[in-house]
Amino acid sequence: MLIPVEERTRQLEIKKSLFIAAAHPVKTEEAAKGLIRDARAEHPKCSHVVWAYILGDEKSQALGLSDDGEPKGTAGKPVLAVLQYSGLTNILVTVVRYFGGIKLGKGGLVKAYTGSVKAVIDGIPVKKQVTETVLHMRFGYADYDGIRKALKQHRAAVEQEHFETDVSLVCRVEEERSEQLRLELMDITRGNVIITES
Predict the structure, then answer these.
(1) Which helix (H) or strand (E) holds 32?
(2) By CB atoms within 10 Å of each CB, which of 1, 26, 61, 156 scores lowest?
(3) CA-based radius of gyration for the chain
């Protein structure tokens, strides 16, 4: 799956209604909801703020959508359908509508929202999604430098460190690198490391 790497906005005018579509890279539902609130705050006089998001990978995805007062199934669902077909993930698209006085009908709304999403995601810069594993480990102080060096070589991001009787460390590493990293850590510590995964 692909992840967008930048935000972008596109506007369409359809029968005097203005549709402002914005695509945002997001990692969490909380981040998506914050951006939806921002869109409402930025456009207090708009008629609707329709949105949809996809988070996660093929194994576990979180989906969300809202018609925001448009007739059921004419807005959020078409926005989500375009996102699902695109192969993108970790993306939120909001479509702000300013009603222009001419009703579009259900078919017209579906077409307008679908067109808005296609316009905003078409050609958006992306990168390949990398599945990551979170490793929790506990080891002695004598192995700290060697472990940090191995983590750096495997491009593992250290998220937490605690120094007590032993060192406790939490890191995030690409799934395809995690097994090799585990083997190296066992070797560095002569088997004196406890590693769990979450």
Answers:
(1) helix 29-42
(2) 61
(3) 23
Q: Using one digit for the tens of pLDDT, what is the confidence trace for 26-83?
A: 989 999 999 999 999 999 999 999 999 999 877 788 999 999 999 999 999 999 999 9
Give the tokens for residue 183. Answer: 């083997």
Which of 128, 148, 172 is at the close of a domain?
Answer: 128
Which two tokens mark 61?
Answer: 């995805």
Identify residue 74 by its one-letter amino acid code.
T
Q: Are residues 33 and 89 in the same domain?
A: yes
> To the nearest 10°, the Cα dihedral for 37, 99, 23, 86?
130
Q: Per DSSP, which regions of 85-125 are E strands?
A: 91-98
**Cα 159 to Cα 134, 135, 168, 171, 196, distances in angstroms:** 9, 10, 11, 5, 15
Is residue 90 within 8 Å of 129, Cβ to Cβ? yes
User: pTM, whole model, 2 decimals?
Assistant: 0.70
CA triplet 111, 116, 120: central angle to 5 degrees? 150
